[in-house]
């Protein structure tokens, strides 16, 4: 499989290349040159398989030329064996036509473990083969950081620098990152928002000398490997609930657009998905974009607001670029021009044709903090499910969606309620406890460095830490 950049100005790469590269050199994101196709029979043949077995079938076409099937099977099996639920991603019924896939049974209790536990193993596998080292730099709104740290700790071939926005992640989230004791893990608390952290990562990648010196790579959803591993649970869920004979609508709590974009990829691969409902908090740039009267396709940034669902406190959804690439007929120059203009002017019109095409498959629904809290309570009272503030936004987005017809609605639960215990407690008077493997989290020592939002300072810090470790 060949991968191409959404801005058409970087070399085409194979899977090994995209995994190790992360962000394309022209600032774009890698996507497969074409989508592997699953026929109805291929989809039927997934029935009755375990999560790991489905994962192997879905991932194979993306990696086959660089990872032998035998090795892929072993890596995938080892990954999902470690999860805390025997179904890996259990699916629950919450209403007559409403289902919920729980993606919080990995080590750090958010859906990001599902891709990153595998990505960590893929890095290790390929770096051993190449006898090479990399430096991972990641921005986190809370959950990517801990999932990446957990996936890469103690791996000799990887140094990990995770940048989180100071005081803007929950205490559980921060402690999950800062209490991991491993000499290759470095936590930075940046004085800024998540968007500032994400821009910092992009700017570090744009420094080609620095980038080459340390072999930078990424664990954010700008890395294609992450999206690839997330396609799996769309297949897993749909097949479990009757695909290819039924059609689906997925409701996805969305920040960086990575998770829902993986669903779009599944649809492109032949999974019968009618549409996606994008759930967001008050940072609702996508809801505004997909509003029915926004026919010129205007997208405009506004300042990031702090909400009860911090992992979605994002304005600029980086994976939207991958969707845009398709909607502009894979014209990389047009994507580059549009996004540079958007950066500069904070607003852009993508045009009626491109917008109406995207609007056929995406709808946006946003919830205020008050609605989020009320919904956690209502859902608990009516179904017995205790949901975290992100998952409940996904669920409510599904419930509020229009034109459901006879589609099955599935929402994705992206975090365990114990990751956001204060909000859940305020809403329901129930304090969700951490699972056993994290029960002493609040007693562990923390380790992180506070740094200003200044690229020179961050670069110096990274240089220093790497040279200390190799000394
Ligand atoms: C990261 C995250 C999201 C947003 O996912 P994207 O892929 O960035 O859209 C939603 N919920 C939780 C709990 C998360 O950690």
Q: Write down how many β-strands occur, each being a DSSP E stretch of 2 or more residues.
A: 15
**What fraction, in percent, of the residue positions are helical?**
40-55%
How far is the N terminus from the C terminus?
39 Å
Strand order of the largest sheet: 3-4-14-9-10-13
Mean pLDDT: 95
Description of the structure:
The strands form 4 sheets. The chain has a 6-stranded mixed sheet with strand order 3-4-14-9-10-13. The chain has helices at residues 15-21, 40-44, 51-63, 69-81, 113-130, 143-152, 171-178, 194-206, 208-214, 224-240, 258-268, 285-289, 320-327, 332-345, 352-361, 369-383, 389-400, 421-428, 455-470, and strands at residues 3-5, 30-32, 91-95, 98-102, 134-139, 158-165, 185-190, 216-217, 248-253, 273-280, 298-300, 347-349, 362-366, 408-413, 449-451. It is an alpha/beta fold and 471 residues long. The chain starts with a strand and ends with a helix. It is globular. The chain has 19 helices and 15 strands. The mean pLDDT is 95. Bound molecules: pyridoxal-5'-phosphate. The site of pyridoxal-5'-phosphate has 16 residues, from helix 11.
Summary of the model, kept short:
With 471 residues, this protein is of the alpha/beta class. The protein is built from 19 helices and 15 strands.
Note the topology.
Elements (H helix, E strand, L loop, with lengths): L2 E3 L9 H7 L8 E3 L7 H5 L6 H13 L5 H13 L9 E5 L2 E5 L10 H18 L3 E6 L3 H10 L5 E8 L5 H8 L6 E6 L3 H13 L1 H7 L1 E2 L6 H17 L7 E6 L4 H11 L4 E8 L4 H5 L8 E3 L19 H8 L4 H14 L1 E3 L2 H10 E5 L2 H15 L5 H12 L7 E6 L7 H8 L20 E3 L3 H16 L1
Parallel strand pairs: 4-14, 5-6, 5-8, 6-7, 7-15, 9-10, 9-14, 10-13
Antiparallel strand pairs: 1-2, 3-4, 11-12
This protein binds pyridoxal-5'-phosphate.
